[in-house]
Amino acid sequence: MVDLSQLLTDLDEESAEVDALVADRPAVDWAEPTPAPGWSIAHQIAHLAWTDQVALMAATDVPAFYASLQHAATDPGGFVDRGANELLDEVMATAAPGGALDRAGAPAALLRRWRSGRAALATALAAVPAGNRLPWYGTQMSPASMATARIMETWAHGQDIADTLGLSRTPSRRLRHVAYLGVRTLGHSFAAHGRATPNVPVRVELRAPDGDEWVFGPADAANRVAGPALDFCLLVTQRRHRTDLALVATGQVADEWLDVAQAFAGPPGPGREPGSGRDAARSRRAGVQP
């Protein structure tokens, strides 16, 4: 039985860690471009706030959520970006007339929006009756699955922010949720790239931040992936290119998986170019070509 209360605690802790990355930053830092093309740090936080808002709708107002799907269907490749942009514009217009991000009130207003939204979502997920599933894009999710997905996405966008600011984060046990989703989405990863879903198991053996081992899949599987849990999570969230990671694939299916892995729903992401991590972001901020 999945412990939803523990998942919600982990989601709160992950959110608080990302919150702390930006809470005391000057407004000019919020305008910094992140590794996601066209997205500033403000867009990253706006995206988290927007996704929490949509998830809250799925948990509390199913008809409204299904109505929102009609808008998503008109622009399946861009509605996520549009949602973040619209929320950011709304917050900025309220906090800083004229829309200038360097107005002192805009970052604080965006943070308040994200904080209130994620708190409301946690309360709503805890109140979903046992056995109920929530509608989502192309699927349905249990409250536990929704919380796990929010942990994964919060961690991933937090990585974008940390990379932009040239910061290192200490990996935590919460990475297990990200790794779990990365393993569970193996089939989706292939399908999203137009490839046949593998019909053979893959064994995943990861070194956890505390030195423990996280293992997924049967022990006798011929296809295997092994390496640090952090590297696996960076891969499946497409925050690093596989050539920059200490992951070892054994078997054709495992090797192909490392090229297409994505723990998030939707169409395939562009991924990252080799050498595009934290040090490269620091060089860009300093005006040096990495």
UniProtKB/TrEMBL annotation:
Domain tRNA wybutosine-synthesis spans what residues? Answer: 200-245
For the Mycothiol-dependent maleylpyruvate isomerase metal-binding domain, which residue ranges apply? 11-162
Domain of life, per lineage:
Bacteria
InterPro entries found in the cross-reference section: CHP03084, DinB/YfiT-like, Maleyloyr_isom, MDMPI_metal-binding, tRNA_wybutosine-synth
* Matching Gene3D superfamilies: dinb family like domain (1.20.120.450)
**Start and end residues of each stretch annotated as Disordered:** 264-290
Coiled-coil regions listed in the entry? none
| Listed GO MF terms | metal ion binding
The protein's matches in Pfam families, at most eight in alphabetical order, are given as: MDMPI_N, Wyosine_form
Q: Which residues cross the membrane?
A: none
Q: What is this protein called?
A: Uncharacterized protein (TIGR03084 family)
Organism annotation:
Micromonospora pisi
